[in-house]
C-alpha cells in the first residue's frame, strides 16, 4: 500500500477518534454544584465569588440556595451574569423594597386626604369585632414585584431543571419545621419563600403549604446540590455568627441568638458532610450585619477576596477556553418579552371584579408592558383591601396569559388607628395636647365604600363620622356625607400676650359630591349646615359670648402631588376654594370667600427648596369672627402664636431651605430655615405691600419611627417631631408633634384653606392686625 494512502487512512482514523475523545472528556468531567447559604445582606458576597469562578473558567452544573443564597443563585441560574446581579443589588432601594406602603404620590386623593389626619400609619386590623394582627410586619408586596421583574426573562419556565443552570431553592414548612426543596413553579415565588424571615415577612403559600425562610432548617444546602447530581460541591457559608455572651444585652439580641443557633447547627451539620474533593469558602464578613444592605458593594468585594485566596484549589476545576466557551453558549438564554393573549383577575374580596379590572392599563394581544403592569398592580393594592397583589404568566390551550391574583387581608379590612399631637410654647408657658383614634369600616359594599369615625380628646375635643361612597367601578364620582362635633379655642392678644380666650363649640352635617381626577386631583361641590356657640373661658368679665348658625355652599379644586405631607422633597400641591354663606340656607350672614393656596418642593441630593403661599379674601368684608382667616405659627409667620392674626383677608409667602441630615426612610432628620412675609387685614382697602409683617425660623425634625422595619422587631411609627426657633417681633422656641409643615387644605369640616382643625381663629388687638373690638 502506498505510503500516501497509509497517511490518509491514519488521518481519517484520528479524526474519527477525536469526537469520541472530546465526548469522553465531557462525560468524565466531574459535575460541579454550588451551595449558597443564607445570611441577609452578607449574601452579596456570593456575587464576588461568582465573579472569580467565571474568571477562572469554572463551570457550574447545579445550584442550590437558601434565603439570600436563593436570590443570588436563582438569578445566576436564570442566565444573569454576576456583573448584572451586582448592578441590581447595588442600585436597589432596599428600605422601600421592605416597606409595603405605597409612596404618597401613588395614593388616590382619598388616601392623601386621610393622611392629613393626626394618626400614625400603623393600622390594627379588626375582624369579627376583634382586633386582629397580621402574621408578619411585612407582606412583601414590593419585594415580590421586584423579584418578578428580575426573573421575567425565564417566567415561562416552571421546571427549575430547565433553567440555564438547574436550580433548587430551600424553604421551611412552618407547620412542621421540615425543609422543603422547591424545584418547580414560579421562580420568583420560590425565591421569596426561601428568604421569608418568620414574623418579619409573611409566609408564602405554595401547594397548600405555608413556607418561610429555609435558614432554620437547611441554611447551606450541600446535600440538596449533591442529590441533584454534583460530584464536587463548592459551598459558600456567609451565615451570621453567634453573639458573644457580653453582646447579649437586649431582648432583641437574645431572640436573634436563638434563630442563629438553629441556623448554625444545621449549617455545621452540612459542612461536616463535605468530602476532600469539595471546597468550602467562608468570606470574612465580621463587620457586615445581615440587615446592612448599604454595604452590598463591600460584601461583594470581600467575597471576591475570599475566592481569590483559594485560587489553587479552585483552578483544578477549570476548563480550557474553548470548553468553557461551549459551556457558556449552552447556558446562554435570550430574553424575550411574552405576548399576553388573555388577562384574568382572581379577585378574593367582596369588591366587584370590574372595580379591579378597570384599574388595569395593560391589554391582551400585545407584548407585556412591565411598567404599565406594575402601575396597575399599585392601583389595585392602593385600594387598601388586599394583603398582596401578585401576577404570573400562565399557559392555557397553547396561549400565554396573565393571571393577577388579589388576596384580601386575612386579618380584616376594617382597622383602628391612633394618634398623638402636642405643642409647647415656653414663652407663653402653655402646652396643647390631643390624643386621637379612628375606626374605619371598609369595604361597605362592592364599590369600596368607606365609613370612618374619628375621635379626638384633649385640648380640642373632636368627633366626626363620614361616609365616602364611590358611585362607579372606576371610582371617578363619589358622594360624601358627614356628621361632626368640635370644640376649639380662640384667643385675644395684646402686645403678643394672651389676654382672653373663648371656646367655640360647633356641630352639624355636611353633604358633598365630586369627581376624582386620577390620583392627582379632585373637584368637589357641597353643602354644610351647623350650629354653634362661642363662650367666655378666661379674661375680663365684660367679655360675652354668643350663639351662631351657619349654612353654606362650597366648591373646591384640589391638586396634590407632594411626596410627604410634613416634610416634602418633591411635588406640587394647590387648592382653589369658594364658600358662599347664605341666610336662605340657615346662616346668620350672607358672605362669599375665596381661597388660594399652593405648596411647591424641589430637591437635589440632600437639599430641598420649597415655597408656600396663600391668598384668602372675604368679598364684602363681612364674615363673622368664627369664619375669618388667620395667620400665625410655624411657617405661617413663625414667631407668632398659632392663629394670632385674624382678618377678612390674609396673604402669605414663605421660602425655605431644608437639608437632610440623616438619609433614612425610617429615621430621617432635617434641618431648615425659612423667610416669611404676610399679614391679615379687616378691610380690602387696608391691603398693602408696605403693611407686610416678616418672620423667619430655624427648625430641626422630624425624628420619625416607622411601622415597618427590616429587623425582626416591631417599631411603631411614634411621631413626627420638630424643634423650632422662630422670630417675628420676638423670638421663641417651640416643640411640636407633629410639625405643622402644611396647614390642612381643608379639615374634615371643609374649613378655609389657612386654618387647621380649629375653624375659629384667634382674636388679636387691632394694633397687631385688623380684628373686631371686644
Would you mind describing this structure in some detail?
With 774 residues, the protein is an alpha+beta fold. The chain folds into four domains: 1-28, no CATH class; 31-97 and 158-331, Cytosolic phospholipase A2 catalytic domain (3-Layer(aba) Sandwich), CATH 3.40.1090; 339-408, Roll (Ubiquitin-like (UB roll)); 414-764, membrane protein fhac: a member of the omp85/tpsb transporter family (Porin, Beta Barrel), CATH 2.40.160. Helices cover 21% and strands 37% of the residues. The chain contains 16 helices and 34 strands. It has a 16-stranded antiparallel barrel. Strands 1, 2, 5, 6, 7, 8, 9 and 10 form an eight-stranded mixed beta sheet that branches. It is elongated, with a radius of gyration of 33 Å.
Amino acid at each position: 500500500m502506498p505510503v500516501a494512502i497509509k497517511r490518509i487512512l491514519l488521518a481519517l482514523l484520528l479524526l474519527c477518534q477525536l469526537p469520541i475523545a472530546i465526548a469522553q472528556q465531557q462525560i468524565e468531567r466531574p459535575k460541579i454544584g454550588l451551595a449558597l447559604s443564607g445570611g441577609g445582606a452578607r449574601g452579596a458576597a456570593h456575587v464576588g465569588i461568582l465573579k472569580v469562578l467565571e474568571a477562572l473558567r469554572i463551570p457550574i452544573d447545579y445550584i442550590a440556595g437558601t434565603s439570600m443564597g436563593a436570590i443570588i443563585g436563582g438569578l445566576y441560574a436564570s442566565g444573569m451574569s454576576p456583573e448584572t446581579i451586582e448592578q441590581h443589588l447595588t442600585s436597589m432601594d432596599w428600605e422601600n423594597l421592605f416597606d409595603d406602603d405605597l409612596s404618597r404620590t401613588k395614593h388616590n386623593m382619598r388616601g392623601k386626604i386621610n393622611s392629613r389626619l393626626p394618626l400614625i400609619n400603623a393600622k390594627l386590623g379588626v375582624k369579627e369585632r376583634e382586633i386582629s394582627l397580621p402574621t408578619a410586619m411585612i407582606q412583601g408586596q414590593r419585594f415580590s414585584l421586584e423579584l418578578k421583574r428580575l426573573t421575567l426573562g425565564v417566567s415561562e419556565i416552571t421546571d427549575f431543571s430547565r433553567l440555564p443552570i438547574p436550580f433548587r431553592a430551600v424553604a421551611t414548612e412552618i407547620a412542621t419545621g421540615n425543609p422543603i426543596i422547591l424545584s418547580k413553579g414560579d421562580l420568583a415565588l420560590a425565591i421569596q419563600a426561601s428568604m421569608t424571615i418568620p414574623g418579619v415577612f409573611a409566609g408564602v403559600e405554595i401547594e397548600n403549604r405555608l413556607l418561610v425562610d429555609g435558614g432554620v432548617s437547611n441554611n447551606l444546602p450541600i446535600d440538596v446540590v449533591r442529590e441533584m447530581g454534583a460530584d464536587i460541591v463548592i459551598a459558600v457559608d456567609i451565615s451570621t455568627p453567634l453573639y458573644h455572651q457580653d453582646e447579649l444585652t437586649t431582648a432583641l439580641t437574645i431572640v436573634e441568638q436563638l434563630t442563629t443557633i438553629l441556623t448554625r447547627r444545621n449549617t455545621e451539620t452540612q459542612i461536616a458532610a463535605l468530602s476532600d474533593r469539595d471546597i468550602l469558602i467562608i468570606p470574612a464578613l465580621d463587620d457586615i450585619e445581615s440587615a446592612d444592605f448599604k454595604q452590598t458593594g463591600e460584601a461583594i468585594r470581600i467575597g471576591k477576596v475570599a475566592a481569590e485566596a483559594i485560587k489553587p484549589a479552585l483552578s483544578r476545576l477549570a476548563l480550557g477556553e474553548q470548553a468553557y466557551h461551549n459551556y457558556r453558549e449552552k447556558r446562554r438564554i435570550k430574553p424575550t418579552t411574552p405576548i399576553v393573549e388573555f388577562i384574568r383577575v382572581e379577585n378574593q374580596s367582596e369588591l366587584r371584579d370590574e372595580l379591579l379590572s378597570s384599574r388595569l392599563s395593560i391589554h391582551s394581544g400585545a407584548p407585556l408592558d412591565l411598567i404599565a403592569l406594575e402601575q396597575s398592580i399599585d392601583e389595585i393594592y392602593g385600594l387598601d383591601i388586599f394583603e398582596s397583589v401578585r401576577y404570573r404568566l400562565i399557559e392555557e390551550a397553547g396561549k400565554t396569559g396573565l393571571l393577577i391574583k388579589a388576596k384580601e387581608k386575612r386579618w380584616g379590612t376594617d382597622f383602628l388607628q391612633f394618634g398623638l399631637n402636642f405643642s409647647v410654647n415656653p414663652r407663653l408657658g402653655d402646652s396643647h395636647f390631643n390624643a386621637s383614634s379612628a375606626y374605619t369600616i371598609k369595604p361597605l359594599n362592592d364599590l369600596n365604600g368607606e365609613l370612618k369615625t374619628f375621635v379626638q380628646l384633649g385640648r380640642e375635643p373632636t368627633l366626626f363620622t363620614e361616609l365616602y361612597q364611590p358611585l362607579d367601578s372606576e371610582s371617578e364620582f363619589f358622594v360624601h356625607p358627614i356628621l361632626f362635633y368640635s370644640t376649639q379655642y380662640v384667643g385675644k392678644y395684646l402686645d403678643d400676650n394672651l389676654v382672653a380666650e373663648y371656646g367655640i363649640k360647633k356641630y352639624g352635617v355636611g353633604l358633598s359630591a365630586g369627581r376624582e381626577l386620577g390620583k392627582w386631583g379632585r373637584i368637589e361641590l357641597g353643602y354644610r349646615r351647623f350650629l354653634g356657640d362661642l363662650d367666655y373661658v378666661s379674661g375680663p368679665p365684660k367679655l360675652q359670648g354668643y350663639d351662631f348658625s351657619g349654612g353654606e355652599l362650597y366648591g373646591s379644586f384640589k391638586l396634590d402631588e407632594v411626596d410627604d405631607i410634613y416634610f416634602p422633597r418633591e411635588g406640587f400641591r394647590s387648592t382653589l376654594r369658594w364658600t358662599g354663606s347664605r341666610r336662605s340656607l340657615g346662616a346668620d350672614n350672607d358672605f362669599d370667600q375665596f381661597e388660594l393656596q399652593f405648596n411647591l418642593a424641589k430637591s437635589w441630593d440632600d437639599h430641598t427648596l420649597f415655597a408656600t403661599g396663600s391668598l384668602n379674601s372675604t368679598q364684602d368684608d363681612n364674615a363673622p369672627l368664627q369664619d375669618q382667616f388667620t395667620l400665625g405659627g410655624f411657617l405661617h409667620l413663625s414667631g407668632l402664636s398659632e392663629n394670632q392674626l385674624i382678618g377678612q383677608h390674609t396673604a402669605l409667602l414663605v421660602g425655605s431651605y431644608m437639608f437632610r441630615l440623616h438619609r433614612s426612610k425610617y429615621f430621617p432628620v432635617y434641618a431648615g430655615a425659612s423667610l416669611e412675609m404676610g399679614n391679615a387685614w379687616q378691610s380690602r382697602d387696608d391691603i398693602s405691600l408696605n403693611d407686610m409683617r416678616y418672620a423667619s425660623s430655624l427648625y430641626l425634625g422630624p425624628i420619625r419611627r416607622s411601622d415597618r422595619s427590616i429587623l425582626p422587631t416591631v417599631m411603631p411609627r411614634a411621631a413626627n417631631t420638630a424643634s423650632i426657633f422662630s422670630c417675628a417681633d420676638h423670638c421663641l422656641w417651640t416643640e411640636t408633634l407633629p410639625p405643622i409643615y402644611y396647614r390642612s387644605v381643608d379639615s374634615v369640616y371643609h374649613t378655609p384653606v389657612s386654618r387647621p382643625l380649629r375653624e375659629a381663629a384667634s382674636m388679636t388687638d387691632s394694633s397687631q392686625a385688623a380684628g373686631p373690638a371686644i
